[in-house]
Each structure stands twice: as C-alpha cells, then as structure tokens.
Model the fold of this input.
Amino acid sequence: MPGTKKYWTLRYIIINATYFAVYSGIHAYASVFLLEKGFSNTLIGITLALANILSVIFQPLIAGLIDKQGKLTNRNVSMASTALLLIGSVLLLIIRNGIAVIFIIFVLIYMIQMVYQPIITAMYFEYEAAGCHIYYGLARGLGSAGFAVTSVFTGMAIGRFGVSILMILDIIILAIALIVLYFFKKPEVKAAEAHGTEVAHNNLFSFIKTYPGFMLFVLGAVCFFFAHNAINDYMIQIITPLGGTEASMGTAVFIAALLELPTMALIDKIMKKISVKNLLLISGTAFLVKTLLMLIAPNMVLVYISQAMQMLAYAVFIPVSAYFVNQTMARLDQVKGQAYINVSITLGGVFSSLVCGRLLDIKGPHFMLTVSLAVTAIGLVIAFVALKVLRDKRSGCGNIAEKGS
Done:
C-alpha cells in the first residue's frame, strides 16, 4: 500500500484546513464583505438564502451521481469545485462595483462551497475503505483550526488593508488546495464484488421511506443550525451594540473554531464511552445553551463564553453525524447521507437568512436571538423524538443509536 498512515492523514488535513480557511472568508465574513459592497441586511439575507436554497437542491443531486460509482468521483468534484471558487474569488477581487454582478457571483461561490463540503467527508470513508488510513477526527479538527487561525487573522487584516484582502487570501489558499487535491489520488484497488440486491435510493421519497428516523433527525438538525447560522452570519451586527468590532469578531470566531479541535481529535475515544445517540443529544443541548448565552450577553466576555460552547455543539455534531451516516446506511446511499446531513446545515442557513436579516432590520439582534433560541428548543425536542424512533422502531438506521462507534 503506497503512502503511510501519517502521509495520508497529512494530505487530508491540508484539504480540510484549506477548505475551512476559505469557508471563513466566504461564510463567516459574508456580512462584512457584502456590507462594504453596499448591501443592506435584508439583501444580505436574500443573498445567503438563495445560495443556500441552491445548495440544498444540488447537494443530493451531485451526491446521487457520485454514489453511482462513475467517473464523477469525490476527488474530481472537489477539484472542480475548488477551481470554480478560485475563478469566482478572482472576479470578486477585480469587480469593484455593481451590486447585481457581485450578488450573482457571491451566490454561486457560496453555493458551490456548500455543495462539496459533504463530499470531502465522503472522500475520507472512500479512501479509508481503500486502505488509506486517515485520522478523520484529527484532520477535521485541524480543519476547524484552519478556520480559526484564518478568521482571527482576517479580522485584523480587514481593519488594516480593507475588505478586498478577503478575496486575496481566498485565492492563495484555493491555489494550494487545488494542488493538494490533484496529487491526492486513491491507489488502484480491485473492483468490489456486487452487493447482492443493494440499490441506491436516489429518489428523495424512496430515501425517506428507507431511513425515516434519520430524516426526522435531519429536521431537528435544521433547527440547530438556524441559530448557528444566524450567529455566524450576523455576528458583526450582534456584537456591535456590545462594543464589538471586526477584530473582536475575529477573536470570537477564533475561540469557537479553535475549541473544536480537541473534541474532534478525541472523538473516536469519546464515542467508545458515550453512545452516538447521546452525543447527538449533547450536541443539540449545547447549541441551545450557546444561543441562550449569546442572547443574554451584556458584553463581549459572555459572547466569548457562548462561542466556547462550540466544543460541545458543532464540534460534536459534525464528526459524530459523519460516522452515524457511514455506519447506518447502505454503501450506495452514504454520499447522499452525508449530503443530507449537510442539507440540514444548509436549510438552517436558508431559514435564518430569510428570517433573521429581516428581523435585524425591524427588531434588532436581541429579538433575532430570541427567535433563534425558540427554534433551537423545538429542534432539540424533534431530535429527541427522532432518536427514540431509531431506538424503539429500528427504522432505517435504528440500532446505531444504541451504541458508540
């Protein structure tokens, strides 16, 4: 087998770190960038909502094509997406004015990056099955570290060089990512034997019928990420009344992202002690507490404490849900399963963008966070019911809820 475990992990770490470094520029600083270009809060909400809606449509479609085991592989889609992001970033750097053009380009690059996020996760399980042993939790955690470092650096850089530095950084990082992906080739393996009567459930209704408990959990997760995306997308509007700046926003994002690393790096050991079901419920509870702390924060200190809850919220949800999909779905449904998990994140972004941008303009950040808290609470109830269905009804992926990894 060519390549050592450390070598495969190192390259997968770079893929994750570069992806999330760019994610910081496109997503965490979306409001900062678009406000500078003359967008209102409402128009920013429309922009992000449209991008998320498009990604919800395309994620399962692309995943279905990859699941068919044709030439459209996880690696090829990741390379194509990275190249398109690179082109889009160059255009946004060159184009100084024109809200309509900026709107179109930003929607496209935001959508493209969301579409291929679950594909990076699916690529891990594909390469692991081919003998390319990778420490997923460590790699994913260092991806968050890349997000953290880039976020705090970007916050300071914008204050010194202006908002255009966002696209310059993205161009450099995307070029590195494209090179690493090009050389990240899976070794040749013998074709797998046919899996009996196994079929791919590419139709949404067929997928729901096969995995009803899982899809109910996805609905609950949508509610978690309503608040999560509201906080991330409108952080600058939330902290400005508390005396926060772009630099303190960078610090807040840095804290959340950096604290994801220890949880993700240790997730394999954690899953041996705590069941997947309980970890997912812990994650949902942490999303609720994080939103509550942000709502009652009188100053930046409590904002930072709220961000620290990321280590139990997002940092638990992402790796555990990835293993959840891999262990509970048929081989030909696994990329779609990863896509539907990401769809929950995306739909949370859709609804928060549509609702929260308008709430900010009309009622302000406090009311927006109050609504977000209520939605998260509803999501926690739905998730609890969904995981109970998985346990009691054995629907779709029932038995995984009863054990760890």
Observations:
- The chain has a mean pLDDT of 84.
- The two ends are 26 Å apart (CA to CA).
- The chain has one domain: 5-186+205-402.
